[in-house]
Amino acid sequence: MTAETTSGPVLVLLDHTAEGTVRTPVRELVTLARGLAGDAGVEGAWAGELPAGALEDLGRLGVRRVHRLATDADAHLTAVLAEAVEQVRASAGAPLVLLVSSFENKEVAARLAVTTGAGVITDADALAVEDGRVVAGKTVFAGTWTTRCAITTSTGVVTVKPNTVTAADAETATVPEVVDHAVAVSERARRVVLVERTERPASGRPDLGSAHVVVVGGRGTDGDFSAVEELADVLGGAVGATRVATDEGWIGHDAQIGQTGVTVAPRLYVGAGVSGAVHHRGGMQASGTIVAVNSDADAPIFEIADLGIVGDLFTVLPQAAAELRRLRG
Ligand SMILES: Cc1cc2nc3c(=O)[nH]c(=O)nc-3n(C[C@H](O)[C@H](O)[C@H](O)COP(=O)(O)OP(=O)(O)OC[C@H]3O[C@@H](n4cnc5c(N)ncnc54)[C@H](O)[C@@H]3O)c2cc1C
Predict the structure, then answer these.
(1) Ligand 1: which of 215, 221, 253, 260 to mutate, judged by most atoms within 8 Å of the beta carbon?
(2) What range does the domain containing 173 cover?
């Protein structure tokens, strides 16, 4: 990105739960944005009701201004959201828009880039301003290469993966100004309407794509995920699976990690009864610390593991869970 980036605020799309709680990856994103924005500050785009608690939370994170989007169309549709974010971006004079990397937000980013001519980078796992340009780090080719890409246009759009930084409150809290925007939605964006939304039953565990800890079960579980779930719960993590496990119907397909599933980059990945096939690695190799539990000492996952335990997962995982509980008293 050119020097103009630092001449205006950084705009962050503020994803939130249906109840209006700011999601953890957004907290991380605002933390990252503060470092990039400098004096120009961080502003946010918020769709829907804005509860007082959320506004206070955004103030603690140092957000200066919250643009509340009001539209008669459904802002869950990416075509509508992209138009709304662009109208806010233009009015705020923000040269850089940051979004959490999710399927929906990557679609929003692509639409923004097409309509504005902005340079777009998706799935960034590092972000900095270098010589006046925004430079993003990105892991590619199934986690085997790390690349750096610079945005060369005056407006940039970047989607950033969860867990890229640790969320932290600002040194000085703000009282964010709330600005209402009546969004004009084009006929083109109204070509699709949302007919129905059904909330998935909550598992009580964090979202797989953004969890700090992910415990994964493979064929070695033989369909019994109880040990995997127990360790995930002790660690406050999400449960993932290999394609073998999802194809067998042992767990839902939305838990599949890998080339044809979800890509995760948690701080801690624990693979139990997972061989480490290349298709699976593609979705987890960028994890911070990789722990593997496998009864076969020659399993390929040990090549990329930071800590490898050769053993039966039904012995090792419950022991680990019990020890963690003991340490926590
Ligand atoms: C086009 C394509 C796309 C694919 N996409 C994906 C994808 O997105 N995600 C994905 O995961 N796979 C994907 N696959 C499948 C992938 O190639 C592997 O087949 C799969 O990842 C293997 O799953 P697994 O590790 O559970 O099973 P296996 O490879 O069979 O490994 C099971 C492991 O469990 C160990 N084990 C057995 N019992 C125990 C025990 N009691 N305790 C501890 N260890 C034990 C074994 O030693 C073994 O290493 C794809 C394949 C293709 C062709």
Answers:
(1) 260
(2) 3-190
